[in-house]
């Protein structure tokens, strides 16, 4: 019995020894990514300073993604030019009065493909400093945020008429023409500011990120739409994806419909 007690005591002593903390890779102070995979060298020589602000209403799930693009926008623009609020409904009790004022400001624009949205190229930048609101999340998350946030429904709404092809080639997009948060903001800023520097300079960190991932085992991804049309999609098509593909077909069949292809971060 004494031997058993001694053995239990020894095990308790071992169990109480604190574990060595895991060795952390050094992080970049700007992008907060490990230095080895930092993309800050590809940022604009000087942070770009638009007349207005980008305001991201970010779904909480986005913060957990290791390869998200919103941080590239945050550090690529001048301080105070990219604001990020997290939540599933806006505004809520956790947000400050500034967000409520932004959403109520008549100069604020919501980038969302509603029936009342107008092409962003039609907005006159001479109307004063603007706030461009983006919903940061996948298409289902963005729709949920919009429907739960009644403050967004009365805002002026704009859309991107032509989104092109995403450079985020290591992510599988739902349909052809879906863009990341960074790319969506770049297109909108280029139109509002009448300045191609946003497209030329802010996209470089995304190229660096993708090239690093490809050099270390990642592969280029075709969209789900492409894979389905070529009988290469490995899963059954759910109702949500089927609706999204039908929406994409309607967009292609009717070029007069400039509905934005929602970004998928």
TrEMBL record:
It comes from the Eukaryota. Its EC number is 2.5.1.25. SMART domains: DTW (SM01144). GO terms for biological process: tRNA processing. Keywords: S-adenosyl-L-methionine, Transferase, tRNA processing. GO terms for molecular function: tRNA-uridine aminocarboxypropyltransferase activity. Pfam families: DTW. It is an enzyme of class 2 (transferase). Belongs to the TDD superfamily. DTWD2 family. This is tRNA-uridine aminocarboxypropyltransferase. The lineage of its organism: Eukaryota, Metazoa, Ecdysozoa, Arthropoda, Hexapoda.
């Amino acid at each position: 019995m004494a031997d058993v007690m001694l053995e239990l005591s020894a095990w308790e002593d071992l169990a109480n020894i604190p574990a060595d903390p895991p060795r952390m890779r050094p992080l970049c102070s700007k992008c907060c990514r490990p230095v080895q995979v930092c993309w800050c060298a590809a940022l604009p020589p000087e942070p770009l300073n638009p007349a207005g602000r980008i305001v991201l209403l970010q779904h909480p799930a986005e913060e957990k993604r290791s390869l998200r693009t919103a941080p590239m926008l945050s550090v690529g623009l001048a301080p105070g030019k990219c604001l990020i609020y997290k939540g599933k409904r806006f505004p809520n009790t956790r947000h400050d009065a500034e967000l409520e004022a932004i959403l109520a400001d008549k100069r604020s624009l919501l980038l969302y493909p509603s029936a009342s949205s107008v092409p962003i190229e039609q907005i006159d930048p001479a109307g004063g400093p603007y706030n461009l609101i983006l919903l940061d999340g996948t298409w289902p998350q963005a729709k949920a945020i919009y429907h739960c946030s009644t403050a967004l429904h009365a805002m002026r709404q704009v859309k991107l008429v032509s989104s092109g092809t995403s450079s985020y080639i290591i992510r599988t997009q739902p349909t052809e023409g879906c863009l990341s948060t960074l790319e969506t903001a770049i297109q909108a800023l280029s139109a509002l500011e009448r300045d191609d520097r946003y497209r030329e300079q802010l996209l470089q960190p995304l190229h660096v990120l993708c090239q690093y991932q490809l050099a270390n085992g990642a592969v280029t991804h075709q969209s789900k739409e492409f894979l389905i049309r070529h009988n290469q999609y490995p899963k059954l098509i759910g109702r949500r994806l089927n609706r999204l593909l039908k929406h994409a077909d309607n967009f292609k069949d009717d070029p007069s419909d400039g509905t934005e292809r929602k970004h998928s971060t």
